[in-house]
Amino acid sequence: MLSKNKFYKFLFNYQSLHYEEFSEKDPRFTLKKRYVDYALKNRYRFYITLKYALKHFSSYTLKVLDLGTYPGTMLRILKEFLLDYKIDLYGAGLRITPDFVKMMKDRTNATIMAVNLDPKNEQLKNKNYPNQIPLEDKSMDFIFALEIIEHLTSPIHMLCEAGRVLKKGGKILITTPNVTRIGSVFKLLIGKSNLDRLMPIDYYDESDEWRPHFREFSMEELVSLLSKVDFEVVDKAFFNCTERYFDIKTMKRRLIDLCKSPFYCIPHFRDTILVVAKKI
After folding, report:
1. DSSP secondary structure of 204-239
2. What number is the average pLDDT over the span 248-272?
3. Does residue 32 have a pLDDT over 60?
4. At residue 245, does pLDDT exceed 70?
5. Handedness of CA 195, 197, 198, 203 (dihedral sign)
6. Tell me, what's the pLDDT at 33?
7. Averaged pLDDT of the chain
8. CB 41, CB 147: distance < 8 Å
9. Which of 115, 219, 227, 252 has its CA 20 to 30 A from that of 233?
10. Which residue has the higher pLDDT, 209 or 63?
11. Strands 86-93 and 61-67
């Protein structure tokens, strides 16, 4: 069983790449002993992801693909934390520079590929990236797709590509924000939009390879979407991604969090969805 304390200690001593770092003077964070990086800020999400992945790894020798791989944190965790496993690592997505490819190769021996997983997105059509993942059919054992599906105008393409490169019985683990989270309900109750994290109206910036959220999903929607592309959901969970653990919180923020906390006993009010699906 994965020990949370052991994993958190690993992340506290984790040597981040500059791609993963926030500024040392970032005013959002309270931690003084070291600056907060992407791995530490998202430590609970990575813990839950790894906990569920280990339940579904088929052996100690695996070929693993990370979709939407930038800034490389998931691949580095797999390489540096799972020392008992022999894992061949691959990553695909946007924001892939030669320096990033080289650094990931040096640190994890991962093969990193620039791929447009959302070819129907008009703003990405001029990038001249391949739309297919340059891997052979039925070559991967496990795929991570963490916090990426909400950024896609057409997630079917990514899921079909995942199905193509997975071996029969191979699995994909997806995490994504939960559209039914209690925070969204609160916004509607006070007259605010619950779509504030989605792509702004008429947003257009070809130079920006970080995409805003295009849409968010409920658990039911995500399970239905996976069933349409020959995946069978074998595990699922709601969890709260405690990304504000190190944040400086105003009194208003503390009161909002306190009001939300009783609702978390109802799973579909939690912040994040996790699904593990098997290729059939």
Report:
1. --TT--SPPB---B-HHHHHHHHHTTTEEEEEEEEE
2. 91
3. no
4. no
5. positive
6. 54
7. 92
8. no
9. 115
10. 63
11. parallel
Gap between the Cα atoms of 233 and 216, Å rounded? 19
pTM above 0.70, yes or no: yes
| pLDDT for the residue numbered 171 | 98
Its sign, for the CA torsion 50, 130, 86, 172, is: positive
Please give the structure tokens belonging to residue 62.
């695996």
Structure tokens at 172: 């994909």
What is the Cα–Cα distance from 267 to 280, expressed in whole angstroms?
28
What's the average model confidence in pLDDT over 219-242? Answer: 95
CA dihedral 109, 113, 114, 119 (to 10 degrees): -140
30: Cβ–Cβ under 8 A, 6 or more apart, which residues?
246, 247, 248
> Cα 125 from chain centroid?
23
CA–CA dist 58, 141 (Å, integer) = 8
Confidence at residue 243, expressed as pLDDT on a 0 to 100 scale: 61
| CA end-to-end distance (rounded Å), the chain | 27
With tokens 């995500």, the residue in question is: 222
CA distance readout (Å), 177 to 15, 148, 149, 172, 215: 27, 10, 9, 17, 10
Domain boundaries, the chain: 36-279
The CA distance from 275 to 231, in Å, is 11
Q: Following CA atoms 157, 231, 239, 112 in sequence, which dihedral angle do they give, to the nearest 10 degrees? A: -50
Query: What's the token pair of residue 117?
Result: 């997983």
Query: How many CB atoms are closer than 10 A to CB 77?
Result: 20
What is the enclosing helix (H) or strand (E) of 278?
strand 272-279
Identity (one letter) of the amino acid at 258?
L
State the sign of the Cα–Cα–Cα–Cα dihedral 41, 236, 233, 214: negative
